[in-house]
Design goal:
Layout lengths: L3 H8 L6 H11 L3 H5 L2 H4 L7 H12 L4 H16 L3 E4 L7 H4 L7 E6 L8 E5 L6 H17 L2 E4 L5 H11 L4 E4 L13 H9 L1 E5 L11 H11 L3 E4 L7 H11 L3 E4 L7 H11 L4 E2 L3 H7 L1 H8 L15 H9 L5 E2 H8 L3 H13 L3 E4 L3 E4 L1
Parallel strand pairs: 3-4, 3-7, 4-5, 5-6, 7-8, 8-9
Antiparallel strand pairs: 1-2, 2-6, 10-12, 11-12
Helix pairs in contact: 1-6, 8-9, 11-12, 16-18, 17-18
């Protein structure tokens, strides 16, 4: 059994960080068992040294957890005051996308709710001082995502984040905000009414404890959750050293898609976007369709049957290329199977598949496996 109070207590024990907390609870299949474990048993947990295991076992035995227990009670009391709650890494409603990142938080403080449909999410991030161009694009993309039923994730900061959240709500969509402070310490303060509305039509999330201030060190970690909750991240406007660049790089590390809107080459607001595109880290997008095409496989259950779904027109193909393209699907096939289905030689199939790869229509995987891009 997993107890939220036990998790809060364990989170305050010196030497137990987020990774060790996850490992301990998963290893012993519950929280109460952790407190009962011997030093030898805890030393068998990944990331727990013999020395740390002895220290933890001694601390648990001697009952030196009074401060941690008071902390846990205070945290739950603060949560109750604002009608918020905690979801844990082991709960069914913990976001599935987030479980697949390198270091998912074991505890998420949440106001609102996460739904199964929120798996179809795209992040919109950018500068805190967008131009009229950036504001218009943030509104445009979030409006389209709302119309399609795609959840918009952002960071509730001033500027692009605020525009994305507000525009999504305006068009009756779902949105999730991830903040870098405690849920009861709203930053910026003027977004408190917006955060309340988000909680009614989505969720406001934080891995920071209740009462935590919006310190600078919290925001890079907050950014990894924004990208981690999303299938892809759209950067609207940002300078090269903007927080949105951190989110984009986090998305790349998490093997998620990154998109960027090109901007004025003389504007610092667009410098980051243009660099992402130039270095091949982000796909240049001009409209929502460009993103839907890239995420079509992952969004297929959501978009299938929608009249507004858009398919990218195929470039001019030879008869051989079209034959092979028709054989391929989202499931990888070996070159021999492709050649057999297309009724061509393996050599001819390989030549034309490479041509399709150059045109961006085919992806090659190790072992001469191919699938539609």
């Amino acid at each position: 059994m997993i107890s939220v109070i036990d998790l809060l207590v364990l989170s305050q024990v010196p030497g137990i960080g987020a990774n060790r907390l996850r490992n301990l609870v998963s290893h012993f299949n519950g929280t109460s068992q952790v407190f009962k474990a011997s030093a030898r048993e805890m030393a068998g947990v990944e990331g727990v040294s013999k020395r740390l295991a002895s220290t933890l076992a001694r601390s648990f035995r001697n009952g030196g957890l009074d401060f941690a227990k008071r902390y846990a009670e205070q945290q739950l009391s603060r949560l109750n005051r604002i009608d918020a709650h905690i979801i844990t890494f082991w709960d069914d409603d913990y976001p599935g996308q987030l479980k697949r990142i390198y270091d998912p938080p074991p505890l998420l403080f949440m106001k609102g709710e996460i739904r199964e449909s929120d798996v179809y999410a795209v992040a919109i991030v950018g500068t805190r001082s967008p131009s009229d161009y950036g504001t218009a694009l943030a509104e445009k993309f979030s409006q389209e995502f709302a119309r399609l039923g795609i959840t918009v994730v952002s960071g509730l900061a001033r500027g692009v984040d605020t525009v994305a959240h507000a525009s999504t709500l305006k068009h009756h969509g779902r949105t999730v905000a991830v903040i870098g402070s405690g849920l009861d310490v709203m930053y910026p303060r003027e977004n408190k009414p917006l955060s309340d509305r988000i909680a009614q039509h989505g969720a406001v999330l934080s891995e920071c404890e209740m009462g935590a201030k919006p310190d600078a060190v919290n925001f890079p970690r907050r950014n990894r959750l924004i990208s981690g909750l999303s299938l892809g991240t759209l950067v609207v406007e940002t300078d090269i050293d903007g927080g949105a660049m951190i989110t984009a790089n986090m998305a790349l590390d998490q093997n998620r898609e990154v998109f960027a809107v090109p901007g004025n080459i003389t504007s610092r607001r667009s410098h980051g976007c243009n660099v992402l595109i130039r270095e091949g880290k982000a796909k240049l997008v001009e409209n929502c369709d460009d993103i839907l095409v890239e995420l079509s496989t992952k969004l297929k259950p959501l978009l299938s049957g929608r009249p507004g779904q858009v398919q990218k027109p195929l470039p001019n193909l030879t008869l051989f290329e079209k034959n092979l393209h028709d054989v391929l699907s989202e499931n990888a096939l070996h070159i021999d199977a492709i050649a057999e289905r297309a009724n061509v030689s393996t050599a001819d199939a390989l030549v034309n598949l490479l041509s399709l790869e150059f045109k961006g229509l085919v992806r090659q995987l190790p072992g001469k496996m191919f699938l539609r891009a």
